[in-house]
Design goal:
Blueprint (H helix, E strand, L loop, with lengths): L6 H10 L7 H26 L4 E5 L5 E3 H14 L5 E6 L6 E2 L9 E9 L10 E9 L9 H4 L6 E9 L3 E6 L4 E7 L4 E6 L10 E3 L10 H12 L3 E2 L5 H11 L2 E4 L12 H14 L3 E3 L19 E4 L1 H13 L2
Helix pairs in contact: 2-3, 5-8
The protein binds 2,6-di-O-phosphono-beta-D-fructofuranose (FDP).
Amino acid sequence: MEIGTTLTRFLLEAQRKYPMATGDFTSLLVQITTAAKIISREVNKAGLIDILGYQGVTNVHGESVQKLDQFANDTFLRTVCHTGHLIGVASEEMENVYQIPGIYPKGKYVFVMDPLDGSSNIDVNISIGSIFAIYRRVSTGSEATMEDFLQRGRAQVCAGYIIYGSSTMMVYTTGFGVHGFTLDPGIGEFLLSHEDIQIPSRGSIYSINEGNADAWDNGIRSYVERARKGGKTARYVGSLVADFHRNLLKGGIFLYPADHKNKNGKLRLLYEASPLSFIIEQAKGQGIDGHQPILDIVPDRLHQRVPLIIGSPEDVEEAHQSLRHSL
Ligand code: FDP
């Protein structure tokens, strides 16, 4: 489709290819873009209106919640819950499943999100992002159940992220390629800027927090050494969406492995690793936990952590081999 096509038109045309489509899904995605625009506006003016800084409470993982995290969480809830397409929501910012309030009609999907990822970067004006995924519910009662959320990543019907950087971009997949849209602030629309993104099969970037090197096991240590000696260059923002987005476009590998300090890595399976792995597989890349594809893992709880190695397929395969040989 023509570069500059609005996201709404792109979604409507995609919907027309499926005569059985009800449009529910399209309207849900349109609402997500509304949330993205509101959060983007707030992120951009954050420094001006003193929305930054700790709110003085901790989230379910004991981390300080900053005002903007809460704002992003509330914005997504406000924009997606009334649509009638959802039965429940899970978020990094909420300990338990959020049931769609009784005043709204219930729908056939559940929504999972990390409403504002990379929060330690908010105060220093570095790119942050939102990550989301949509699953079809599997339960049939009047409320969402845990089973609706604890589905393997392959069951995702949509995954995406929004990066609030030098421009705001939304990148998503519904299983038919990965498409990127850049927000034109002048007209308040996301316009097609990157159609059918495919990650290079090998890249020159490796992204890992080398501050954790003392806790790495031999497999990771030898892979990183090999990457370095093989001429790769290090790039690590410490904001997952930013590191992922750069590597998706340029090629490369991102690793947040298990180590002696964090036995299950740091990142969350349901609303970080799984959505990004759906996107990377659709872009012809790979996402693994060190042993198996992330998309094959069945979560056993909402906020489960998982090691993540994700990026260009040949680079991820090389890391995989290195881990396998170190066993
Ligand atoms: P943050 O703690 O700032 O929210 O998801 C958590 C995350 O950021 C990711 O965005 C990022 O990739 C990772 O943690 C960075 O962790 P380290 O500081 O341990 O490298």
